[in-house]
Sequence to fold (450 residues):
Amino acid sequence: MADQQTQQTVQVTNTAPAVKVVMPAAPVVPAAPVAPAPAPVQISPELQSLRNAILAANVPQMVMSIISYALEMRSSDIHIEALENHVRVRYRVDGVLKSIVDYPTNLHPAVVSRIKIMSNLKIDEQRIPQDGRAEVTTKEGREMDLRISTLPTVNGEKIVMRIQDKSRKIPDLLELGIEGNNLKRIEEAIKSPNGIIINTGPTGSGKTTTLYSCLNRLNKTDVNILTIEDPVEIQLDGLSQSQVHHDIQYTFAAGMRAALRQDPDIIMVGEMRDKETADTAIEASLTGHLVFSTLHTNSAVESITRLVNMGIQPYLITSTIELIIAQRLVRKLDPQYRKVATVSAEMMEIVKNALANLPEGHIDPALLQNLTFYEPSDPEKGYKGRVGLYEVFRMDNELRKLISESASTMEIEKVAKKNGMITLEQAGVIKALKGETSLDEVYRVARKSE
Fold:
């Protein structure tokens, strides 16, 4: 009986209609994208050499690698500064400080001593600042002069080395970024048989390079050119260059007086720091010499006020000054890493105000139709190299009359602009419109017009 029931059950089970169960399809999960392997960071051999020297505590190799890598990075200054827990090495590249490497504080006394030995400074004197210089040849054969300054700080001595690369070529005026009416005015002035040409600007603004560029154009076998400098930054064939030594009373004024006895045609004096030097430069100009020099003022017109404050009579200024150049350096945009900038309404108003008073002939009218500016697309690679902004004040009879009447700086500047002078701000805006630099760079160094 049980077998029959089992048989029946099986039969029922077998004869039941088949049920097809459809399971919902599992959701398709996309495979996670495989991130591409990061490209290996390319490290300069000089930087790797510096890192290896730090790991090995090889101080002579550290110092040489710091200098060599600075040359590779186009640095103008090396900063080695002791902090609380480490020592930081920074380079000034295109006017901006960049952190390069750190090393332990226990190596710093040996590094300082090594640099002091190179520059003939006192190793055992750590309480007062010291200044020196050294001549260095890298293993690649590049020669350079180093101006070395030490400064005692709470964490140890800080060292700053100014690099003067002897292999660097003096650029021509056009290569410096001088163009248009500014170039024409400078070329006319340096052809004058006598007079004074002044270049003004802050430290590190390229004044000496501009003067060297002018002297390069005048450097011919039938011309005797003498320079009195502190220090002689670049040696040029054909020039008689002399370096002052204040500790033995060989000053700019003393050098100028000696130069006048050397039958010169052209004299360059590094800086008019005091009335004595200015008086000697004026005397040289009045006796038929062309004199080049520098001042520290904020604009070309303010140089007139500076000379008056030094005690120079206005009639001497008007009879000797031929040209005054004010200049600043701004970083150049790298064409590979630049993009069109978004300029705020406020900034655009400032730019339009600067361009409104621009003398004719200084800019292509096509650039004014669509005011387009650029900025870096990559903050690390956006800038490469520097270019100058120039404000060129050319003396004329109308300006001579104002100066002799002791007119204000504002009055003199107004007439100078009317007669074709462009300001540093205007020069910068023109460079920015051409895509050579950014507005941020321009207004980092130039004052906004009112």
Summary: The mean pLDDT is 87. The radius of gyration is 33 Å. Residues 2-15 form the longest helix (14 residues). The CA atoms of residues 11 and 45 lie 87 Å apart.
